[in-house]
């Protein structure tokens, strides 16, 4: 009996489908075990059958995925001995010390050892860093690859037999047609282009042969988003790799398109580059100088789509380049270089402001920049592309949640605005969910309470810090668009988060000092439910009410969650992970606490009660705080 590992399986593949695939290739197999995560183990009758399966199916395109078939070597002990829990770090500054590396990499797990290894560049150094688990290695790779350390962008990758296997999988996965740019590790700044839908078949080739050849020749990863926006006339392609490799892959795609156009008598082709609206101004330049220079240097004609073509859920503009293939490729290289430089400048400009929003990647704030436009229908190119193609190149700050931490937040909106948030047949709320990646649910009216007495509805948002930012911003922005504020006033909504009751004293501080400082810095009104007479247990949670404009409540949320997490209390993310369900079950209690705090001791004393609960910070104080004017520049 010989066991095979089959990797890179489509998400909808099951045992019957995989068994049928083996039978179609006359490969006898006995047991097939399909695992979550897109891989399976297959028992073949003998070694000869296993060898034939590897020859026939390794690299075979199956349902849009390039399979990886190889002998199974799976024992946990063997994986550990082969160095699975090691990460290779290269391009380190020559003067960096092990103590500094230990401090940086220990944010993602206990560092077992740091071993210096030969470096190809004599001006830099490389090291192997060992962790306890593969999960810690993966987190370090995701968070620190590309991180700028003393002017050197680090290259962080897994160092193990597993990484070599994954490398083979990705190198042979030119036909991985996932519509998610984040489905694999992004390398540098991705190039996104737009092609006619009838060209997609030629670009992919028979069983993925053409796109696989492009991938192997250029060493760039090419994702064709063929399943996005079914029926559209154009499809997006995302190319990952270093700048030169991306340009080479793009040129190969143009050559395939030109050949297909010649075969079908369609004439000359054009190159369409997708770029975030925030970057377009720097491509055009003052008075059009930059784009004119590129046209002159490359002998091409370049146009940029109108700003009216974008909307809240699609912020990409189209840069159309016309000319010969060689000239279009040169123009693409110059345009991509300018886009990449502008993106990196934006990243550096946003990083210092992340202190106001602990735990949030600075470029997540850029994802909502330029969203002050009313929605003009669904996105043009599907939901696949990220609104701003940032990668998590900055490390998560110590004591703040990682980007994949799931948080639960309750947001209250006026009852008469629910229809606008939901949209026609649920279109707007679906776009919010798709764009942000968060779960967004609006609570129904309470049956035991008259409708006229229910002035607000609770919106439950579950997602990562980045998803929370996007979903909450879109709701605030929709409220502004629908005219729920007058003139230039900011939309002010109440947000609730749950914190461990044992941490309430830490948040309030001695004599209310901490909460007053929070209100002063963030410009929001913060209220906590009344203290209980008996000491709270470790499992009890207290509701924190935060009232203010978008940036104020975001800053308050992030600071409070960071404060709780720094205390070392498990589950301090306020409804994270398994708390999500429990948070929903506590909606009624949370609402009653909120109503109670707002009407305590009768209507004539409600203001003084509110002031007491917020440690003596009246709302007039926060109104005097200057508010950010653009999502791209929070104070």
Keywords:
TATA-Binding Protein; 635 residues; 23 helices; Alpha-Beta Plaits; globular; alpha+beta; repeat; six-stranded antiparallel beta sheet
Describe the structure.
The chain is of the alpha+beta class. It has 4 domains: 2-71, Alpha-Beta Plaits (2-Layer Sandwich); 85-158, Alpha-Beta Plaits, CATH 3.30.70.330; 191-348, TATA-Binding Protein; 407-445 and 454-565, TATA-Binding Protein (2-Layer Sandwich). 37% of the residues lie in helices and 20% in strands. The protein has 23 helices and 24 strands. The strands form 6 sheets. It has a 6-stranded antiparallel beta sheet. A 6-stranded antiparallel beta sheet has the order 20-21-19-22-24-23, sandwiched between helices. β2 (29-35) and β3 (39-44) form a beta hairpin. α10 crosses α12 and α15 packs antiparallel against α16 (465-481). The N and C termini lie far apart (64 Å). The relative contact order is 0.07. Residues 569-580 have a biased composition (Gly residues). Residues 597-627 have a biased composition (Low complexity). Keywords: mRNA transport, Repeat, RNA-binding, Translation regulation, Transport. It comes from Temnothorax curvispinosus. This is Insulin-like growth factor 2 mRNA-binding protein 1 isoform X1.
What would you say about this model in short?
The chain is α+β, with helices and mostly antiparallel strands and 635 residues long. The chain folds into four domains: 2-71, Alpha-Beta Plaits, CATH 3.30.70.330; 85-158, RRM (RNA recognition motif) domain (Alpha-Beta Plaits, 2-Layer Sandwich), CATH 3.30.70; 191-348, 2-Layer Sandwich (TATA-Binding Protein); 407-445 and 454-565, TATA-Binding Protein.
């Amino acid at each position: 009996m010989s066991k095979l590992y089959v990797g890179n399986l489509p998400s909808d593949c099951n045992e019957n489908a995989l068994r049928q695939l083996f039978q179609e290739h006359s490969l006898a197999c006995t047991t097939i075990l399909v695992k979550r995560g897109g891989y399976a183990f297959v028992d073949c009758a003998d070694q000869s059958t296993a060898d034939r399966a590897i020859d026939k199916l390794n690299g075979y395109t199956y349902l849009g995925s390039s399979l990886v078939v190889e002998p199974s070597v799976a024992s946990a002990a063997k994986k550990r001995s082969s160095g699975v829990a090691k990460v290779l770090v290269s391009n380190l500054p020559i003067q960096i010390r092990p103590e500094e590396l230990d401090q940086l990499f220990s944010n993602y797990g206990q560092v077992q050892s740091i071993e210096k290894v030969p470096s190809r560049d004599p001006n830099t150094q490389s090291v192997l860093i060992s962790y306890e688990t593969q999960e810690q290695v993966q987190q370090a790779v995701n968070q620190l690859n590309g991180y700028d350390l003393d002017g050197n962008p680090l290259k962080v990758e897994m160092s193990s037999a597993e990484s070599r296997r994954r490398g083979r999988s990705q190198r042979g996965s030119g036909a991985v047609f996932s519509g998610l740019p984040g489905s694999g590790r992004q390398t540098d700044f991705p190039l996104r282009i737009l092609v006619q839908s009838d060209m997609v078949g030629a670009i992919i080739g028979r069983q993925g042969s053409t796109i696989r050849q492009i991938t192997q020749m250029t060493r760039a990863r090419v994702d064709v988003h063929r399943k996005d926006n079914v029926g559209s006339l154009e499809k997006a392609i995302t190319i990952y790799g270093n700048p030169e490799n991306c340009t080479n892959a793009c040129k190969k795609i143009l050559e395939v398109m030109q050949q297909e156009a010649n075969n079908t008598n369609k004439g000359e082709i054009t190159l369409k580059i997708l770029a975030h609206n925030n970057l377009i101004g720097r491509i055009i330049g003052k008075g059009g100088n930059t784009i004119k220079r590129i046209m002159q240097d490359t002998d091409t004609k370049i146009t940029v789509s109108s700003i009216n073509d974008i909307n809240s859920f699609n912020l990409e503009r189209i840069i159309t380049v016309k000319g010969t293939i060689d000239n279009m490729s040169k123009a693409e290289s110059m345009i991509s270089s300018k886009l990449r430089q502008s993106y990196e400048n934006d990243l550096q400009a946003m990083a210092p402001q992340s202190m106001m929003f602990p735990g949030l990647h600075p470029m997540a704030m850029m994802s909502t920049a330029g969203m002050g436009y009313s929605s003009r229908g669904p996105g043009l190119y599907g939901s696949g592309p990220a609104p701003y193609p940032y990668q998590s190149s900055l490390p998560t700050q110590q004591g703040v949640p990682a980007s994949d931490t799931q948080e639960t937040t309750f947001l209250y909106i006026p009852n008469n605005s629910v229809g606008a948030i939901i949209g026609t047949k649920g279109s707007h709320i679906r776009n919010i969910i798709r764009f942000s990646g968060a779960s967004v649910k609006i609570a129904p009216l309470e049956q035991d309470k008259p409708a006229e007495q229910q002035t607000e509805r609770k919106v439950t948002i579950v997602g990562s810090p980045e998803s929370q930012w996007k979903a909450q911003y879109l709701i605030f922005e929709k409220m502004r668009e629908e005219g729920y504020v007058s003139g230039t006033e900011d939309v002010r909504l109440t947000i609730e988060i749950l914190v461990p009751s044992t941490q309430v004293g830490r948040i309030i501080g001695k004599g209310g000092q901490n909460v007053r400082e929070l209100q002063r810095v963030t410009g929001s009104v913060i209220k906590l439910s009344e203290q209980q007479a008996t000491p709270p247990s470790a499992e009890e949670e207290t509701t924190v009410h935060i009232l203010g404009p978008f940036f104020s409540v975001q800053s308050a949320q992030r600071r409070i969650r960071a404060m709780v997490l720094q205390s070392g209390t498990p589950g301090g993310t306020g409804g994270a992970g398994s708390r999500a369900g429990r948070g929903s079950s506590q909606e009624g209690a949370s609402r009653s606490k909120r109503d109670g705090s707002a009407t305590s001791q009768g209507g004539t004393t409600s203001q003084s009660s509110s002031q007491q609960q917020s440690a003596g910070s009246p709302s007039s104080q926060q109104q005097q705080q200057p508010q950010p004017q653009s999502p791209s520049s929070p104070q």
